[in-house]
Amino acid sequence: MALKRKLPLLLLYIVPAIATCVVSFLVYLKFAAEEAVIPEAFGGQMGFAAQMIARQATTHLEARMQIITFHANMNMFSLLCVAWYGSGLFCDDRRSGAFQLYFSRPLSRMNYFLGKALCVGFFGMLVSFGPAVVIFIVASLASPEWAFFKQEWDILLRALAFSVTWLALVCGLTLFASSMASRKSFALLGVFCFMGFSVAVAQVLGPFVDSRLYATSILFDMQAIAHQIFEREGSWRMVQEPWLAWTVIWSFTGLFFSGAALRLARLRIVE
Amino acid sequence: MSFLRTTAILFTAQMRRILYSKRALLCLLVAMVPISVATLVRLVSEREGPPPEIFLLVMIWLVLVQASIPMIALIVGSAAVAEEVEDRTITYLLTRPIPRGAILIGRWLAGLVVVLCLSLASCYLTFKIAEDLGAVEEKYPPLPADILNRLLVVAALASLTYSAVFAAIGTFLKHPVIAGLAYTSVIEVFLANLPGGNQAMTIQYYLKSYLLAETPELAKAYQEHFNFLDLATPSDALSHLLTITAVALIFGVWRLSRRQFLLPS
Amino acid sequence: MSLLVAQELGRRYGQVAGLTDLSVTIGPGVTGLIGPNGAGKPTFLKLIVGELRPSRGSLSVLGEKPFANRELFRRIGFAPQQDAFYGHLNAVGMVQLLLRLSGYSTHEAKQRAGKALDRVRLEEGRERPIKTYSKGMRQRVKLAQAIAHDPELLVLDEPLTGLDPLGRRDVLRLLQELADDGKTILVSSHVLHEVESLTSDILLIHRGRLLAQGQVRDIRKLLSQYPSRVAITARRSRDLGQALLSFDEVRACRIDPVRSSLELETVDLDRFLARMAEICAAESYGVSLMKSMDEGLEAVFDYLVE
Q: Beta-carbon neighbour count of residue A151 at 10 Å?
């Protein structure tokens, strides 16, 4: 049903799709230039511009870092996708009475909940993890004798770990908001309010009370988690203790999923 | 039915509706955020706490004016017309002998009262909790005596302008909350923090100008904390904000008087 | 005197034509608007009450163009099909609010609201919020708000939906009373036999076009290419069937010996009936029942839609 509505699909996925294509091409160009192989795309000859790009790619581009940086930057897009597709899942069903149809079938509330959660997780994974997979495959195929795959195989697992952590939180938040709200727009508002206020509050509490309170911001926590998962030494982050970031993230995730499940369990079929 | 009388009837009806609705509860929660944060900081801060100028600035500017008030205005303002359309009750209003524009104005005014009450109360309480927090360092001059008044006026202007803009958006779009979120979370955050003429396209710029242009203490603290500062004069800022409000409402009334509503059965 | 005149009225929704070249006049009294789903009935009603603008053609309601015509709305009462209410208000509150928006003072609005709710027989639960009401109660509130300001023209979109048989009877009775009071009523419905009980003036719409307008019987007569079907129950059904097949005007005959009945198709009903009377008088076939099966609205509807 979500795939039938083309405009939101286009708006939400076009930027990540284009960015994935561009970065994949640059990664391919880097490996091709290193091997002094003239890419077939240039018809066997590289023009001046293409040579410049290839030279820059060889010098500055590191495929692993591209995956990491790209992956981290897709956070906001995956939040948008999950929030857009997930915010109406429960409240629209309640509003239209569709859950009465669902529960008149041999379907448990847990199955219903998991089905919705996995659906929204899928849309988030397309943006959060999908590009990493594409770039990894391109890099593996373009590198000589699968060198990239042999040397950097772990980057995909790390990207998966990060995506799962981020999407678990975002899906939980979105489903919780949807279970509490009466309309999709309220649920969307709830998701963005939470994200926005967590940053604003952290920026007050962090500098003026205790720097550990930067951990109240979800985005700062994910920054710290990314630092740990991807072993990004020297990168700037607000939350210095990764254990704190993990605790906050998984606490919120548990809270949101529990809240949504509880709301669902107490939902009356006939109102 | 005259415009004023219709506006008054719809204003009263909408006030009753908002006060018993979930929207009001959500707005109250959002308005409590700055107060809660200020209270928390006051409870745990040490005597050598931050200069109040910076804290006030960050609390009231960042949390209240940049985050809290736009959210409250979005929750209530966007419902001026959009709620009737979503509930499909706009049919009843459109088939009454009333000027269509009065639907927007009456319901917007009711929302404005709620937004104003919450934002002014939130601003006042946050200020009172935080005003004597910590020690004043010598490099920061004391705050002017009328700073609270100025902050309250900024909060009121923010409520007025944001609620009018979101109410107008509600007459054009089916999902005004999404457009409003995009504006406050992306466009304003992005444009308001870029140097140059882009800032003039945001409401935040004029609010900031009104607050800081004649309050050098706060302006200095702002520049230290946020790096750059580019301000209009307070009178310019005020006139721009009022113009934005008026234009938004005029466009909203015009659009509503011409719009056809295709409601699902 | 025509109260509603539509000339080549059309309304498009992008690529989809809601109404196409609809030319119709409606006079005083009760008119039934009938059509299958997707025929364009709600579109036509929304054009009449000024919610939508026509894409082409013209529409005049009580002598004026309806779109956003404030003065006209004093004279029209509209009960929409959608189940939409101010759920936080009670019945009196909602009707009273809408009456105040029609220009009545608070006191008068309250009185009129009470009378309108009495008229639609919503006695219990008036003080409870509408969101706690049953479907039938909500339907009555919708009707009450449509009639409360005493309009000249009532436009009712599926007013019988959700009502139990007693409720339907009450509403039909109310509509008849209103018609007797001189109101013009346009009723859209799927319940054909109930529209038939209310009025014989119908408008048949299908795929956005007018199929037929007028009295049910007159429309039927126009459908001469469709043979009339007659059902007969007789003791000697087989013999009667053989005799009837010799009539020129009888096209087909199906005999059910088990039920002692037969069903035949005739292209000239009046002539057939006259000759039937002759042969029954001449010989005793034991006829106990004879009825025409498609004088009714449903048959006319089926024929036209096909």
A: 12
